[in-house]
Structure formats: structure tokens, C-alpha cells
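Hey team,

Filing this mostly as a record. A colleague (T.K.) asked me to run one chain through the structure pipeline before their review meeting, and I want the input and output archived in the tracker in case anyone asks later how it was produced. No errors, nothing strange. Just documentation.

Input sequence:
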Amino acid sequence: YLQELTGTCTISDATLSKGSENIARIFNSTGNLVLNIGSDLTTTIFNDTQSQNANMTTPGSLSPFRSYCFIYFATSNANATINARNTSFLKAGTHGFKVISDGNANVNTVNVKSCTFNNDNASFSPNDQGGSIELTSFNTSTMKYNILNNSCRGKDISLINVVAQINSNAEGRINGNTVTHSGAGSAGNGI
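Output structure:
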């Protein structure tokens, strides 16, 4: 858990796994952040090694206590640019990659390019659920995004989800992604 992370930061050429909660969680209420996850030359992996159902209050339900591989929360006057590329987000309890902007926060750009999201873990836990990418803006915050050329696989939840609520603004492109729902009776939308 990182709080008030500013400057230019990189997570690259690493395998990050967890036992509970989120693998990487960043909360900023002020300052400027440029965060680079992965690169064109190396592979970065976020792998939730614990069964998602262990994090749920009721098996088969979507609970606020479910985990994310990566979550960034910007509020108040925080500004951020987040670039994720050539990264695998595996076995997330809810979504592999989540960004939230709230208050007057400005998420200048979220770029998610050439990443792999796979939350279909039937051999690990047949009841696992999970999506790929969720971007949410609230109040007067802004968010711009590019979700390009990713491989997204999961079930029982929307795989790519963008939500703008109240007076917020979310604007961007979703293009060239391979989106696959799996499992019998799988619910949720692709995008």
C-alpha cells in the first residue's frame, strides 16, 4: 500500500504475488504521478495466488472486499498518468486493473496496452469470478484513457468497464482488444 506517491515511478521486470487484499494499491490526494507498469522489453506479472472466494463475504457474490491486482485511487487534487504495457494481471478477485478518480482529481491518461488479463481459473477454483479493467470517475474529476490491444479473459462480471458518475468526465478509446467470457452461464458484458 503506497500513499501520496509522486514523481516518475516504475514497476517493471517483476513478479508480484499476494496472500490477501490487493497486490498493489496506491492512494493519492495531492501531487503529480507518472507511473509506468511493465515495458516493451520486460515482462511484469501481478498474480493473485489466493482463491478469490477466500476474499468474498458470500461465495458467488461480488463483494467490496474482493481483491484487485492493481488499484490506483486519485482524490482531491491529485494528478496522474498511468501506463501499463506488456503486463499480465492474473487471478484477480474483481478486476486485474482498476483506476478511480474522485473529487477534483485529474487522471491525465491511463494507457493499458498489450496486457494479458486472465481470471478464468477453473483448475484453481471453479467458482472464481473476475474482470479485466475498470475505470471509474466521480464528482468533478476527469479521466482520459486508451485501452488497446489487450487480451481479456474472465467470467461473471464485465471485463472492460468504464464509468463516469455525477459531474465527472471520462473520455478515451477502446480498440483492438480480444475479450472472452468463459464458463457456463457466464454473466456480465465484454465491454
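Quick notes for T.K.: Residues 51-65 have pLDDT under 50 and may be disordered. The radius of gyration is 15 Å.
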